[in-house]
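Predict the 3D structure for this chain.
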Amino acid sequence: MTAPARMLHLVGEAEYRDEAEAKLAKPGDAALVVRGRTRSMVMACPDGCGETLVVNIDPRANKAWRMDTRGEGLTLYPSVWRDGGCRSHFIVWRGFLIWCDRFTLGNREPRYDPSIEEAVLSAMDVSKPLTAEAIAYAIDELVYDVNRAANRLVGYGLARSWKESQTWFFVRAD
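Done. Predicted structure below.
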């Protein structure tokens, strides 16, 4: 087994899955399947197990991840969590592969931009709890960036957070 990948390497596009898969050489390599619109992302499993993952990007075809290419690299939301095979769980955030279970030692996050904090705080309500996802859609930002900013605002005492049923909520402090 090879070392786990720490960055996503977008190696190109193809019209069909087998063509995309042929472009993958090492863990963390990914290629987009595009036929008129982006359909899926084919990825060499970043943990080095040798399997190929297919991540659906097209919401017309059942459960789909959201792909965003703003900033330094590609972001997928939500996390990729394999319930079979190697059982890897990771986040793809601005090209960084952030491990959620194994391999967390060595995780790196994208550069932080504190200018987002004002927009995140403005989108929060004092009495209506919101998730980072709801805030992100309200201000058109990446969910992971909003989550990091919201947690920093909690640290500053400007917001409060709590977890209910596996979901974190945020409100502006009184």
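Residues 143-156 form the longest helix (14 residues).
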